[in-house]
Amino acid sequence: MQAFTTLDSAVIPLDRANVDTDAIIPKQFLKTIERQGLGQFLFFDWRYRDGDLSDPNPDFVLNRVDLQGAQVLLAQQNFGCGSSREHAPWALADYGIRAAIAPSFADIFANNCVQNGILLITLQQETIDTLFLAARAAPLQVHIDLAAQELHSADGQHYSFDIAPGAKHKLLNGLDDIQMTLAHADAIRAFEAERRRQMPWLFREVQHG
Amino acid sequence: MTAQTLYDKLWEQHRILSEEDGRTLLYIDRHLLHEVTSPQAFSGLRAAGRKLWRVDANIATADHNVPTTDRAAGIADATSRLQVETLDRNCAEFGVEEYGMLDRRQGIVHVIAPEQGLTLPGMTVVCGDSHTATHGALGALAFGIGTTEVEHVLATQCLWARKSKNMRVWVDGTLPQGVTAKDLVLAIIGQIGTAGGTGHAIEFAGPGIEALSVEGRMTVCNMAIEAGARSGMVAPDAKTFAYLQGRPHAPQGDDWERAVAFWQTLHSDSDAQFDREIRIDASQLLPQVTWGTSPEMVLSVDAKVPDPAAAPDPVRREAWTRALEYMGLQAGTPISEIAVDKVFIGSCTNARIEDLRAAAEIVRGKRKADSVKAVLVVPGSGLVKAQAEAEGLDEIFRQAGFEWREPGCSMCLAMNADRLEPGERCAATSNRNFEGRQGAGGRTHLVSPAMAAAAAIAGHFVDLRRWHG
Ligand code: SF4
């Protein structure tokens, strides 16, 4: 997984509360066999007119010309609520979103984001309001420093944010659950060797037909 | 050493390490894969440049999406085809053994693993599918997992888990004639409810369980998840060993002797403590039929559809009212007067050879009622199908006007072309009667294979004890 250290980007101000995972990625896109490729369907119902990929809705913030390539989402409270689908962070990550800032995030969604290398920054509602105000008219550049737990915005403001130590360690080092488990590889191997010795019948030759 | 339950033993035997917060790293012996929940796990591995930790622990088959009609014609639906082809491609790339759509050993993942001896007592068995509990019938610790966990098992051969509580369902007596393992598990769910086993691992024990065949025990453990438990299990015994001996992946020679000696230790100690225990008397049971949209909405065949006004609490009154409306049923209607449009005999609950024999026994020399539009018999695996054909069961079904199909999940979840039309009523041997499970607007009544077969002949549910066709 890509490590998250610092990030410089404009913010995408998505001024809606309770954005659920069905809005982030509608259920018709869950039949996919890949994690990749969902970015084009991110916020599908808001982003395109009449579900037509060739007809972007100019009123939707993701389609703003001056925000193309932006990697930070600015959102309102309870972002990511609803179904537990991991397709939501997959879609955000595939689009290129690396961090989101909001007054609060839904639980399972927050968990899924950490698994997928997306930094979630929770700030006070007043701070969020200030950022929305600054970001509305023209792109607002921010600098995020995860190690220092700081956010600097181009209008000269500095904010610090909290993050659970486990999640910070994971993001800073670009570790996923598998990598964290593989830190125990020796213990797994030793356990497995003992098992093979005691119960060789649990191990078999692989056949290819 | 303190007394242990079977679950305690299986847990301890697979515990690599535990963290302070109670998370335990468990070693996984067997990982079963199918086409629906594995694609993102494989692509995750690919993206990270990872290999499988232990290739030989994995086995794959395509079951959910495969057509049950002419296989040579391929899969018509494009998304289904893509999922099946993706599984083939992933297995080839990562070296996983796969029973592909045209392999004789192909079938429902929970039917083929025990059949091949790939599930053994004392194992941990996982699969991206909630009905993995089935494998507990052989004395394994088996449970369903999500796609992220599938990827984790592929890459590490381990899972992080928290221990469940111990629950025992003690079955006294033995089942009367015409009453089967399916009726038993439906009655258990009717008694404890769909949340009755939540947070627990259920051990099924007692004379009524010992009297069941190994296949019958699979039917019971299969539905542990419908009682809210992620895993169900039965202590292995002489029947288990006899079932396994000689299967392709069962131990042989000296290994067999050593294995059996070890397997004999896999039972709850006589003074083991359970957090929860319930009892049921098998000898008092009648054939069961679900009337609603949850497996706990179940009654004996001689009962009448319940009146929501008599529900024990407001929550259930609301649920019953909604269920009756969805099911198109009137309170007070005798279960035996409910007429069915279609019949489905299949699924990982009831598509093994004994199930087909029980259905054929009822059907022999009879024909389906004209009012019944279709009867699908879908064997659980290619080998079950071959065995049934060797015994002439397929002929019995065909002569009765039933359709004899290729193995797969089929109308259990209607991901392929087999499904109910809106409003159609079905007697099904599967495990879920949720709204829309067998097709949008479809109405499912869960029953045993014998009850389903009888409903196909009579056109409505019948009390097998009194019915002579
Ligand atoms: S038969 Fe039904 S319950 Fe069993 S694995 Fe297939 S879809 Fe799931």
Explain how this protein is built.
The complex is a heterodimer of chains A (209) and B (469). Chain A is an alpha/beta fold and 209 residues long. Chain A is built from 8 helices and 7 strands, in the order E-H-H-E-H-E-H-E-H-E-E-E-H-H-H. Chain A has helices at residues 21-24, 44-47, 87-95, 107-115, 125-136, 165-172, 177-182, 185-198; strands at 6-13, 72-74, 99-102, 119-122, 141-145, 150-153, 158-160. Chain A has a 7-stranded mixed sheet. In chain A, a hairpin with a 4-residue loop joins strand 6 (150-153) and strand 7. Chain A starts with 5 loop residues before the first strand and ends in an 11-residue tail after the last helix. The model of chain A has no long low-confidence stretch (mean pLDDT 92). With 469 residues, chain B is of the alpha/beta class. Chain B is 31% helix and 17% strand. Chain B is built from 15 helices and 19 strands. Chain B has a 5-stranded parallel sheet with strand order 5-4-3-6-7, with helices on one face. In chain B, strand 3 (30-33), helix 2 and strand 4 (58-61) form a beta-alpha-beta unit. In chain B, helix 12 (353-363) crosses helix 14. Chain B is globular. The N and C termini of chain B lie far apart (58 Å). The relative contact order of chain B is 0.13. The chains are: A alpha/beta (209), B alpha/beta (469). Chain A binds chain B through residues 1, 31-36, 86, 90, 115, 176-178, 181-182, 184, 187-188, 191-192, 195, 199-209, and chain B through 16-17, 25, 27, 29, 39-40, 43-44, 47-48, 50, 53-56, 79, 82-83, 86, 95-100, 103, 120, 122-123, 147-148, 151-152, 155-158, 160, 249-251, 255-256, 258-259, 262. The complex binds iron/sulfur cluster. Residues 63-64, 108, 110, 129, 131, 347-348, 409, 412-413, 430-431 of chain B line the site of iron/sulfur cluster.
